[in-house]
Design brief:
alpha/beta, 14 helices, single chain, 19 strands, 8-stranded parallel β-sheet
Length: about 475
């Protein structure tokens, strides 16, 4: 039996267009768009009518950077694939791309299989995987080719975290050379971890143990230096590069320069760098621990460069790097030693709303909001036009968004499995009302109607900016 839905009377906003149209959904896909008021929608014979009058109808968000159930610093990210994808849906995100992890001494396949086992049957929305490459050797390089063929088309490396995920320049170059040949995209955590570890050791020796020192030792210059080095290594390898969680003015400048040279270099930032700052890391008591993530929050003056980069397309994507640790019992592991605070912040539920607030505040346009949160991440990670747009043939991953509703972000009301909100008490304008994932209502007029296991694994094509 075919199922049909009409979303009627809304303003359909995609990365390229805005139009008053009815959206016709059949069997989980967008069947057609019809000008509002035309007989087409009436003739469609829908079982479900959704009234979007006075609202936006937007593609479901694509969050290309999450860490559900991730082991880190002696603990685990607090959101499971079940709780994390449910929270994502509440926030208007209908696809996540999470990171499977290769442990040193193990194969990529073992890591990927472990993450499939965590996610399968548990997700409320669709998901894909990137692969964290922690141990570059001849076997790993061969496995990269196999993973690309089966739809895991991006590989993350770390210039930070010596002894955990760190790769040296030779390992990075080898992986980039392999990606240049197999069509994969190298994603880089660009911070000079060797130098940072020296500064951490020196700070602790001086008795500088509070959370704010996390930001002071992970210097913007060391992010910029690593970004520059990653760009030049990718240039030598003839490979594209995607730099994750860009936080600093100087790092944006490196990306801008590379793009001006015509290099296939891309950059992502996250809401925490756009809306929070070192003022949060310096909150009294141990409160600053809530805001410990890497790259770290920067002084407020860095925000202007990030917004400008998003407007000029020197930064193309806003993801969350959602990696939540509870304040109680997890962040507290670093009391008396900031280097032991688990690195990561919650945010998968807040991204679409915060970026709508950026539209309200005049930082970006409505279409740019959809571009950086839906369309570009879908293209970057080989999911477009199945995901990231509202067009005939696309998956019916659709959000009815009320641009006038006001809300206050709070841990009291969020759905992430974490005991604090990084944006506690922040008043914003705009709210998700109804969410469809492949045509199925996951959130219906602010009620959760989804289920674990609805979300399916989605293999990905290669980066669509390189074809």
């Amino acid at each position: 039996m075919s199922s049909r839905t009409v979303i009627r009377g809304g303003l359909v906003v995609t990365a390229s267009d805005e139009m008053h149209a009815d959206v016709l959904v059949e069997d989980g896909r967008v069947a057609a768009l019809a000008a509002t008021g035309t007989p087409a929608a009436e003739a469609f014979g829908a079982e479900r009518l959704i009234d979007a009058s006075g609202k936006y109808v937007i593609p479901g968000g694509v969050d290309g950077h999450t860490h559900m159930e991730m082991p880190f610093g002696g603990t685990y990210a607090a959101d499971t694939f079940e709780t994390g994808t449910r929270a994502a849906a509440w926030g208007g995100t209908t696809t996540i791309v999470d990171f499977a992890i290769q442990s040193v001494g193990h194969s990529l396949r073992e890591g990927l299989d472990a993450w499939h086992a965590k996610a399968e049957g548990n997700c409320a929305i669709d998901y894909g995987f990137h692969m964290i490459v922690s141990d570059v050797n001849q076997e790993t390089l061969k496995e990269m080719d196999l993973l690309v063929e089966e739809g895991v088309t991006s590989f993350k490396q770390f210039m930070a975290y010596p002894g955990v995920f760190y790769s040296d320049d030779g390992q990075i170059l080898r992986a980039m050379q392999r990606a240049a040949g197999n069509g994969g995209l190298i994603m880089m955590h660009a911070e000079n971890g060797i130098a940072i570890d020296v500064l951490v050791e020196q700070a602790l020796a001086r008795g500088e143990t509070d959370p704010r020192f996390h930001g002071e030792v992970r210097k913007a210059l060391l992010e910029a230096e690593a970004t520059h080095r990653a760009i030049r290594l990718a240039q030598v390898a003839g490979a594209p590069l995607y730099v994750v969680h860009v936080s600093a003015t100087e790092a944006v400048a490196e990306l801008t320069r590379a793009r001006d040279e015509g290099l296939p270099v891309f950059g992502e930032t996250c809401p925490q760098y756009l809306f929070l700052s070192t003022d949060n890391l310096a909150e009294p008591g141990f409160e600053g621990a809530k805001y410990v993530c890497s790259t770290p929050l920067r002084p407020r003056e860095h925000q202007a460069a990030l917004w400008r980069g998003l407007r000029t397309n020197d930064l193309q994507v806003v993801s969350t790097d959602h990696c939540p640790f509870c304040f109680s019992g997890q962040k507290e592991l670093g009391r008396g030693d900031f280097s032991k605070i688990p690195n990561g912040m919650p945010g998968v539920e807040n991204r679409m709303d915060l970026l709508h607030q950026a539209v309200v505040d005049g930082h970006i346009s409505r279409r740019r909001w959809i571009e950086i949160a839906c369309a570009t991440p879908a293209r970057m990670f080989g999911l477009y036009p199945k995901k990231g747009t509202i067009a005939p043939g696309a998956d019916a991953d659709i959000v009815v968004y009320d641009p006038h509703a006001e809300q206050v972000i709070s841990a009291e009301t969020h759905h992430m499995n974490v005991d604090y909100s990084a944006y506690e008490g922040r008043r914003i304008t705009g709210r998700v009302e109804t969410v469809l994932s492949r045509g199925e209502p996951v959130v219906t007029e602010r009620e959760y109607t989804g289920r674990k296991g609805h979300g399916v694994y989605t293999p990905r094509a290669t980066c669509q900016y390189l074809n």
